What does this fold into?
Amino acid sequence: MKKKKNGRDPKKTPMNISKKPSHPKKGNLGAKGPLVIGKMMKHKNGFGFVIPEEEGQGSDVFVSRSNMKDVMNGDRVAVRVAYEEAAGAKREGYIEEILERGTREIIGSFETSRAFGFVVPDDKRQNDDIYVRRKDFNGARKGDKVVVVLTKYPEKGSNPEGKITEIISRSGEAGGDIKSLIRSYNLSPEFPNRVRSEASVMADEDAADSLTGRRDLRDKKIITIDGPDAKDLDDAISIEKTQSGHYLLGVHIADVSHYVREGGHLDKEALKRGTSVYLIDQVIPMLPAELSNGACSLNPEVDRLTLSVDMEIDESGKVVHHEIYESVIRSQARMIYDDVSEILENNAVDLISRYAGIISELRMMEELAAILRKKRLDRGSLDFDLNEAAIVLDEGGVPVSVELVERRTANRMIEEFMLAANETVAEHYFWTELPFVYRIHEKPDPEKIEEFKAFIASFGCYLKGSSENIHPRELAAILKKIEGESYERVVNTIMLRSMKKAFYGTECQGHFGLGVRYYCHFTSPIRRYPDLMIHRIIKENLKGDLTAGRIRKYRKITEEAAEISSTTERRAQELERDVEKLKKAQYMEKYVGHIFDGVISGVSGFGFYVELPDTIEGMVRASSLKDDYYQHEAAHYRLRGTHTNKIYALGDRVRVLVEKVNAQDGEIDFLLSDRDEGEEGR
It folds into this structure.
């Protein structure tokens, strides 16, 4: 068995290991510098930074491994600053006191010896293994992924102790690695019994008993278009021409609020989750399957309750009239993106024959989508054309392929229709002045735009307009100009990094990236809580039930829903990225020693990242560049050799060899290679 990085043999009982921490040498302030209170963010190599919890306490304080005492990642600590550079740019200190422990439970792999066991944390920032007495194994076996609750924190160099409280997955279990990541985010695909019971009761409700006041659309040609594996079908569409020659687009959304009643167990759990999370072959749904895949899903040939928005759209793409109402539909076809795209792009004869009754509607949809897209791009909407990858796993959860996903005609078509519905609903309810949840994307920071201007200048591109008040139309013009160029993806990526993150809020502040004044999320209430919340408001408004008291209540609960939903969305995105990194790294394990061509996709002081054509990314570490000492020129997104002036810059094409892979941490290390690919590449 390997020894730990700190030199401890895990087979030996860890109780007597002790090392008195040494303090750093006195800097400009000496050992009696200021005391800073904050949260410890440890690095996997043992050092860390204390993030001050109050403004005015200066920059983060670096703490070396030897000055950590017994601190764990996430602890609230008091750090004594012992060295500080001019203007407080860099500070170093030592831990004076641990004020509050930030970790109660740890997830990791269980290992055993004759007398005891220990858990090796998945999070490498928790540098110490957790000692577990045999009586606290609770059925765990060697190699299992487990949750260990700490019963004793590290003290005077001894390791923390704990007891096993949960077995996430057994050793070798298919999908166990993803289950472990899910648990590390404190999420679960399973629902509490009271939530499932309520879902079962609501799912058994007969839709026929809830048709009063609803418009009957069951005879209309309404269809759904989704991915082949989708089970939570929450949007359907219809189209026809009006007597004036305009398009009448109907977007019909599952009436989830009919089944998820305010304040119930389902509602509280949905708010807590905020969103469904999609992890390759696993889903953490916002709602139980009885609703998400059953009563709420707009499956074909069954009656479903919906909330509809009809939009009359002229030949320029302008919505000249709209109507929002409760409805009941019966989808005539459950179509998938590729089939619709084959019909529209390639006139696939077999598919045209199968869907003969709706072909004219599909072609009308294609026409309208092109009009809407042109209008959107003309107003300056940013359309980032970044490749996405589909990771295919075998039955054992092992990745067997990583392939680019193409945005085809049908995908873009549905995207345009959902954007139109979201914008229409947001504008309608802005003018009612009722409480609402909007999707907000603020203007980018001027400093970020200045950096972007400097970057694209190296490609002969120049951004018009003031950085303080940049219009998305100017950024869209850059995207149009570089279309098809070798550096297109890099410029797309850097522009995207210059943007602020979108979030939910109760004030209608517009969506910069889409170039619109009004925007919300209305079209996915099965998998997003903000959509569910505004469906409730819309329905109460339609029925005239929004009293002054209800409006006051909604002003409060919409703020809570917006804040929680923004947080849970970020959590879902981080988990999705972690799972993708894990599986891509696992996929590359079999290609160690192979050579690939790629593009430099990121640059830092530690080296530069290289992205392969299938979106897999790894790092060429600066320490591996033996021909020179390279300095990081952050403003130019590059490394420059101090003696040779050789440059490795963002967007450069390079050839790399896969040196090593750390699948658990999702890390891939490359070396630069000048060898021909030959038979060694994929």
